[in-house]
Write a structure and sequence with these properties.
The complex is a heterodimer of chains A (130) and B (425). Chain A is an alpha+beta fold and 130 residues long. Helices cover 25% and strands 32% of the residues of chain A. Classes of the chains: A alpha+beta (130), B mainly alpha (425). Chain A binds chain B through residues 14-15, 17-22, 25-26, 29-30, 33, 36-37, 40, 45, 47-50, 52-53, 55-56, and chain B through 157, 212-214, 216-217, 263-265, 399, 402-406, 408, 412, 415-416, 418-420, 422-423.
C-alpha cells in the first residue's frame, strides 16, 4: 500500500532553516539525504520531491473562458507544503514509523524538530473480482 | 569455413559494455532507410535489442552482431506489417511487402557505405525542430542511445507510461512533419547539427545538474551524452562546434568527483580538490579544443570549452588566468544573447578588476527582465559583496537566492553560505 507523507511548515515568515547556524543546517541536510537514501535502499521509496518556496506559488482557477486566472501571489495560509515522500509499504504502521523518523529531523541546536507530517493513503485500483 | 566462423564466435558471457547501444543507431539507420516508417522501425529495433540482450550472453555473440540485429528487426517489422495488413486489407499484402531475406543480405554486407549518413539522418530526425526539447531528448536517448523507455523514465523521474507516451507522440510529430531523405548541405547541415548538439548538451546538463533528490537512482545521463557526442564527432570530425561540444563535456565532466562533498553537497570550483580531477579527460578535452581554435570560426561551444580548459589547466584556484577567461566571456557574449553569460562575465571582471567593477556590471544587468528575479543574480551579488567585505549584504543576497532557486542542492549551498557569514568570524 502506498502512502503520501507530506511535510508542512508554518506559513508565517521565512523558512525556519534560513536563519540557522551552519552546523545545524549541515546536520539537517545530512539527515534528510540519508533518510531518502535509506528509504530507496529498502525499496520503500516511490518518489520524493522538495517544493520551491511558496512566494513563487500561484493560486489558479479557470476563468469563465476556461483560461487560467490567478489571484496573484499565493494567499496567506497557516501552513504550506515544503516537500513530500510517497512510500510503498506493507502496513499502515510502517508508514507511520517512516513519518515519525522524518519528523524527528534535527533542528536548531541539533534538537528534534517533531515536524508535523501528514500521512495519507494513496488510492489504488479496485480489487480484482473473483 | 563454417567451423572457422564458429570458432570466431565469442564465448557466452556478459556483453562488452555499450555494444548493443553502439549498434542501435547503425541498425535503426539501415532499417529506417529501407522501410521509411520510423515509428514501426524504431519499435522493431527495440525488440531486436531486447532479444539480443537475452540471447547473446547465453549463446555467445553472433559472427556479425549488426547483421543479426538488422535481420531480427526486419523480421519483427515484416511480422508487424503482415499482422497489420492482414487486419486491414488482406488483398493488399502483395504490394506492401519486400522479401525480407534479400534485403537483409544486402544490409549486412553494405556496412560502411551509408552508415555515416544513416546515423546522422537518424540524429537529425530525433532532434527535429518540430519537437519540443523534452521530446527530442527522450527520442534521442531511445532511438540513438539505445536506452529502454524504463531507463529514460528513471533518469527523468517520471512514470514509465508517461515517458512511453512522450516518445510515441514524438514519433507521430516526426511523421507529421515529414522527413527528409537527402542529407542537408552547407548552412542547412550546420543548422541541423546545431539542433542535435543542443539536444546532446541538454542531456549532459540534465545529468550534470542532477537537481532533484534523491540523486542515487538517476541513470548517468552525462556519460550517455558524452558517448553520443563522441559518436557524432566520429561522424563529422571536421565540424568545429561538435568538436567544441565534446571538449566542453569532457572538460566539465572531468571535475565530477570533486564537485560534491561526502554528503552530496555542492563544492564550488575554487574549493575543489583538484587532485580528484580526471587528468585524462582534461588532456583529451584540451587537445580537442586546441585543434579547433586556430582553424575555424569561433562558435559558442568552442569558447565555452576554452573557458573550461583555462579553469582545468590552473594548478590551483589562485593561479587561474582570469584575464583570459574575461576575454573569452566577452567573446561568448557577442556570440549568444544569454544573460547568464553576462553574469559570468561580471564574475570574471570582478576577479580581474576587483569586486566593485563586478558589482557595477551586475547593476547594469538588473534591467534585463530575464535576470531581474533570477536567483543567479542574487547568488552572484552575494558572492561579490562578500569579496567586497559587506557581510550583511552578502547574507541577505544569499538568502534571497536560496528562496528563489528551484534546485535543492543549490538551496542547501546558498543557505550554508549565508549561515557561514552570519556567524561571528
Amino acid at each position: 500500500m502506498k502512502y503520501m507523507l507530506m511535510m508542512n511548515h508554518p506559513g508565517t515568515g521565512a523558512y525556519q532553516v534560513m536563519s540557522w547556524p551552519q552546523e545545524d543546517l549541515r546536520r539537517h541536510i545530512g539527515f534528510m539525504k540519508t533518510f531518502a537514501k535509506k528509504l530507496a535502499a529498502a525499496g520503500e521509496l516511490v518518489m520524493a520531491e522538495g517544493l520551491a518556496t511558496p512566494d513563487q506559488a500561484k493560486l489558479i482557477r479557470a476563468g469563465k473562458d476556461g483560461q487560467p486566472a490567478t489571484e496573484g501571489v499565493f494567499p496567506e495560509s497557516k501552513e504550506f507544503l515544503v516537500g513530500f515522500w510517497i512510500v510503498d509499504v506493507e502496513t499502515p504502521a510502517r508508514a507511520y514509523a517512516i513519518a515519525a523518523e522524518a519528523s524527528a529531523a534535527p533542528g536548531k541546536g541539533g534538537e528534534q524538530m517533531s515536524i508535523p507530517i501528514e500521512v495519507r493513503q494513496v488510492m489504488s485500483a479496485p480489487p480484482i473480482e473473483p | 569455413m563454417v567451423e572457422r566462423a564458429d570458432d570466431s564466435r565469442q564465448l557466452p558471457g556478459p556483453l562488452p559494455q555499450h555494444l548493443l547501444r553502439d549498434l542501435a543507431p547503425q541498425v535503426l539507420g539501415v532499417v529506417v532507410r529501407r522501410y521509411r516508417d520510423f515509428a514501426a522501425c524504431e519499435d522493431a529495433v527495440q525488440e531486436a535489442l531486447i532479444a539480443a540482450a537475452e540471447q547473446w550472453p547465453r549463446d555467445g555473440l553472433p559472427d556479425n552482431p549488426r547483421a543479426w540485429l538488422i535481420h531480427v528487426a526486419v523480421r519483427r517489422l515484416t511480422d508487424a506489417v503482415r499482422a497489420e495488413t492482414a487486419r486491414r486489407h488482406r488483398e493488399e499484402l502483395t504490394v506492401s511487402l519486400v522479401p525480407p531475406d534479400e534485403q537483409i543480405a544486402l544490409g549486412a554486407d553494405s556496412a560502411g557505405t551509408n552508415e555515416r549518413d544513416d546515423t546522422l539522418d537518424l540524429l537529425f530526425m530525433c532532434c527535429h525542430p518540430a519537437l519540443s526539447p523534452a521530446s527530442a531528448i527522450a527520442l534521442t536517448l531511445r532511438a540513438v542511445g539505445g536506452l529502454t523507455t524504463a531507463e529514460i523514465a528513471k533518469a527523468f523521474m517520471v512514470p514509465e507510461a508517461t515517458m512511453a507516451q512522450r516518445i510515441s507522440r514524438a514519433k507521430q510529430t516526426i511523421e507529421a512533419a515529414g522527413r527528409q531523405f537527402e542529407m542537408p548541405a552547407g548552412d542547412a547541415l550546420a543548422a541541423r547539427l546545431g539542433a542535435v548538439s543542443h539536444v546532446l548538451y541538454l542531456i549532459f546538463s540534465e545529468g550534470y545538474a542532477a537537481s532533484t533528490w534523491p540523486e542515487l537512482i538517476r541513470t548517468d545521463l552525462s556519460s550517455e551524452a558524452i558517448r553520443l557526442t563522441r559518436m557524432l564527432h566520429g561522424l563529422v570530425p571536421d565540424d568545429p562546434e561538435v568538436t567544441g561540444l565534446l571538449a566542453l563535456m569532457l572538460l566539465t565532466d572531468a571535475r565530477r568527483a570533486a564537485r560534491t562533498g561526502p554528503a552530496g553537497e555542492i563544492v564550488p570550483l575554487d574549493q575543489q580538490d583538484r587532485a580528484l580531477w580526471n587528468r585524462q579527460a582534461i588532456a583529451e578535452g584540451v587537445e580537442l579544443v586546441s585543434e579547433t581554435l586556430p582553424r575555424s570560426l569561433i562558435g559558442p561551444y568552442q569558447v565555452q570549452a576554452a573557458i573550461a580548459a583555462v579553469h582545468d589547466e590552473a594548478p590551483t584556484a589562485g593561479e587561474t588566468d582570469w584575464a583570459q577567461i574575461l576575454a573569452l566571456y566577452g567573446l561568448l557574449r557577442r556570440l549568444s544573447d544569454n544573460p547568464v553569460v553576462a553574469l559570468n562575465e561580471a564574475v570574471a571582471a570582478a576577479m580581474v578588476h576587483g569586486p566593485a567593477v563586478g558589482l557595477e556590471r551586475l547593476d547594469a544587468l538588473t534591467v534585463d527582465p530575464r535576470l531581474a528575479h533570477h536567483h543567479r543574480l542574487d547568488a552572484v551579488r552575494g558572492h561579490l559583496l562578500e569579496r567586497a567585505g559587506d557581510r550583511a549584504g552578502a547574507v541577505a543576497c544569499y538568502r534571497r537566492a536560496a528562496d528563489r532557486t528551484t534546485s535543492v542542492a543549490e538551496r542547501d549551498y546558498l543557505l550554508l553560505q549565508a549561515a557561514r557569514l552570519d556567524e561571528p568570524p
